[in-house]
Design a protein that fits this description.
This is MinD-like ATPase involved in chromosome partitioning or flagellar assembly. With about 270 residues, the protein is an alpha/beta fold. About 30% of the residues lie in helices and about 20% in strands. It has a single domain, classed as Rossmann fold. It contains 9 helices and 11 strands.
Length: about 270
């Protein structure tokens, strides 16, 4: 069981898209926490195509905190992601609410650890670093915090100081920090980006997923989603001795979202081991 937080230092490398893609393919029950302080719930607007009312989520937990009922209220604020084992905790409705979330984050972290103890994993979409109301306690209290960046020179330079901050803030904790490179090889390789940031390079395992053509909604993961023949966990660090194909995820297309996640890590069929 694990709490994994995803974030970015600048730009929009695809934190929400990657987090949703992982949640859809996750092989265990998982809770997706939309903790992006920007607000507006891009997941409700994008993944659910605006068909689900934004009438709960983090703001309800912030109100429940006044009566010390966050842990009790949390299960009632989760939405099922159809065709998966994932549930969503929607984020705030507006960036103006971000400041009121500051005291909620450490309490929510404790509640999420309680979920972890019941056999559920947690994925946190923490949005961009440095914003008002940023969920720092979730980032520095997670089992694994992943910094997403593109492989361009401006993106890597912008991520450098944030990589240092994450290392410093987690140095005395059990939190591991890694980097996920979006658009590897355009122009720099993931290894070069990893070396520049001083963070280990992490990537999802290889798996398969499919959606029936008649299904109008999001893709449903197949039974073999995120399965790895060598028995690795859903997230593992790549090493020089590990074949690249062994660490790749084939993520499905899903309506209303870019195919960025699928494109990034998909390998040709003839390259699979």
């Amino acid at each position: 069981m694990a709490i994994i937080a995803l974030t970015a230092g600048s730009g929009s490398p695809g934190v929400s898209t990657t987090t949703v893609g992982l949640a859809l393919c996750w092989p265990r029950p998982v809770v997706l926490v939309e903790a992006d302080p920007t607000g507006g719930s891009g997941i409700l607007a994008g993944y659910f195509q605006g068909q689900v009312a934004h009438d709960g989520g983090l703001i309800e937990l912030a109100m429940a905190q006044r009566e010390d009922l966050v842990a009790a209220e949390l299960p009632h604020q989760l939405l099922d992601l159809p065709g998966s084992q994932a549930r969503l905790l929607p984020g705030s409705r507006s960036h103006a609410q971000a400041g009121s979330m500051t005291t909620l984050w450490p309490v929510l972290l404790d509640a999420l650890r309680d979920l972890e103890a019941t056999g559920q994993d947690v994925l946190v979409d923490a949005g961009r670093l440095g914003l008002v109301g940023s969920p720092a306690p979730l980032l520095y209290g997670a089992d694994l915090t992943l910094l997403l960046t593109r492989s361009t020179l401006p993106a890597v330079i912008a991520a450098t100081s944030w990589a240092e901050t994450l290392r410093d803030q987690t140095e005395a904790t059990a939190t591991r920090v890694g980097v996920v490179v979006i658009g590897e090889g355009h122009p720099y390789s993931a290894r070069e980006v990893s070396d520049a940031l001083g963070l280990p390079w992490w990537a999802p395992c290889r798996g398969t997923a499919a959606r029936p053509r008649s299904c109008p909604g999001p893709a449903a993961p197949s039974p073999g989603a995120l399965h790895c023949a060598r028995g690795c966990r859903p997230w593992e660090r790549r090493s020089a001795s590990t074949p690249q194909q062994e660490w790749v995820v084939r993520c499905p297309r899903w309506r209303g979202w870019p195919v960025l996640f699928r494109r990034l890590w998909e390998v040709p069929d003839d390259a699979a081991p």
